[in-house]
Amino acid sequence: xxxxxxxxxxxTGAARGQGEQEAxxxxxxxxxxxxxxxxDERGRAVAEELGADTAAYxxxxxxxxxxxxxxxxxxxxxxxxxxxxxxxxGILRYxxxxxxxxxxxxEVVRVNQLGTFLGMRAAAPELAAAGGGTIVNxxxxxxxxxLALLTSYAASKAAVxxxxxxxxxxxxxxxxxVNAMCPGAIDTAMINPARLDPAADPVRxxxxxxxxxxxxxxxxxxxxxxxxxxLALFLTADDSSYAxxxxxxxxxxxxxxxxxxx
Length: 262
Fold this sequence. Notes:
Elements: E1 8-12, H1 17-28, E2 32-37, H2 40-50, E3 55-59, H3 65-79, E4 84-87, H4 102-129, E5 133-138, H5 151-171, E6 176-183, H6 202-216, H7 225-236, E7 247-250
Parallel strand pairs: 1-2, 1-4, 2-3, 4-5, 5-6, 6-7
């Protein structure tokens, strides 16, 4: 038996990175998964690989209210219900505070903060109708500790943690648990855009990333998307049945403090 047998879960940003790994793991644990993204070709390919009986793809721009209504409706139409939501979709922009254009700040907030709000609001009634369920929001290490050049991202992810706490309080009596993941550096295209650049040397890019996090992370490396997926599974499954309203940090010890040795 899988940990998510008979459950239906919608995962945003599921075409690649953390979201893809979450979708794959959830299917392996018995769930039926709706993969949502704006990367349609890649998202459909992953869903097809996982199989029509257990996975479906839907185009969903998380900053668009109408897309959320359509996405939730598609999940119900395809699999009959909705038991869980993983708000994984997110974007990252590096910039100094005083150099950050308003448009850039709002772009990040639209995806990371507004997208999470719209997702919780759209999913909650369906989760309640199914007898209860789970929402897992993706926040960040930087929601809890400052990091230079990330004003927009940190602001949006701190808001995710705050909204998670409020939603947990409001939805508890409907049988809905709401928690947040706070990953540190995870080795995806988000922190290493060279992965998506055909002109870049992937080996050099990987080595540079590895060297950076070898210095700043106590465990000596960036995290892996599948490690985040395992935390998402824990928070979606009954293993975490008494946990709600909490930020769960997954950062290799980074938040614990600074290391004073190489």
